[in-house]
Amino acid sequence: MDVTLLADREVRKFNIEPKIALLSYSNFGAIRTGSPSRVHEAVEILHREHPHLSVDGEIQANFAINKELRMKKFPFSKLQDKDVNTFIFPNLSSGNIAYKLMQELAGMEVIGPILLGIGKPIHILHLESSVREIVNMTAISVIDAQYQKAEENN
User: What is the pTM of this model?
Assistant: First the structure.
């Protein structure tokens, strides 16, 4: 749950309204044990304590990405027909594997990883970062520094 709140705050720094999917191998309580149950519980808490957030899950990646498929199968989803722009993975391994696959297979631009929830911002450039990736990470670092300075002044 905390990761979702941190991600929401980080995405908002870029004037983007987060639409967040908590990913799993299960959809909306279909499997009631193991990691899906923990994700399901986190979503219930988020809905109860942070009703303003556009967040739902647990949900498989294909339904999170494909809003037409999601609406057909899960019309009750709080994500409804929104384009999900923030994905919360169940663990570091699955998140890293997925973003590397998207980068290589789909040719998508990757920005990150960005570590959240620690005292100071930390930004990591992966092996073989392109100039564009370095520039993007620098921009994120500048925005983080600006937010940190503003928080210190308040």
Answer: 0.86
